[in-house]
Amino acid sequence: MHEGKGALTLDAQAEDGQFTVENISYYKDAKLATDLSADADWARRGLYIGPQFETLDENVQAQFEAFLNERGIDSDLARFVPDFAELKEQKEYCSWLENVKAFVDA
After folding, report:
1. What number of other Cβ atoms are within 10 A of residue 24's Cβ?
2. Which helix (H) or strand (E) element contains residue 88?
3. pTM, entire model
4. Whole-angstrom Cα distance, residue 20 to residue 64?
5. Which of 24, 42, 75, 95 has the most neighbouring CB atoms within 10 Å?
6. For the domain bounded by 7-105, which CATH number is listed?
7. Hey, where are the domains in the chain?
8. Over the stretch 36-82, which tens digit does the pLDDT of each residue have?
9. Are 17 and 78 in contact (CB under 8 A)?
10. Distance (Å, rounded) from C-alpha 1 to C-alpha 4?
């Protein structure tokens, strides 16, 4: 986000140490890009979200990839995200097991 200039949102997959960008959307209102309310979700649905990334000119794709790399959205992050997600899933699963056990034992 840039103050007063809106925000970009990125839809991407992290796999095998690489990001696959699916879509980059621009929002004039930065709050709309980050608001998790049902009203904001509804408002976003009515907006043009931009073309699929793979349909952009290759030079435009390369420029976006350079822009993202400059901001740390790179192969290091693409390796970190799945590992962190797996760790979080495992912690959530262990917590769930503890809660179910406590309920059953009660």
Report:
1. 21
2. helix 75-105
3. 0.74
4. 12
5. 24
6. 3.10.280.10
7. 7-105
8. 999 999 998 888 888 999 999 999 999 999 999 999 999 999 999 99
9. yes
10. 8
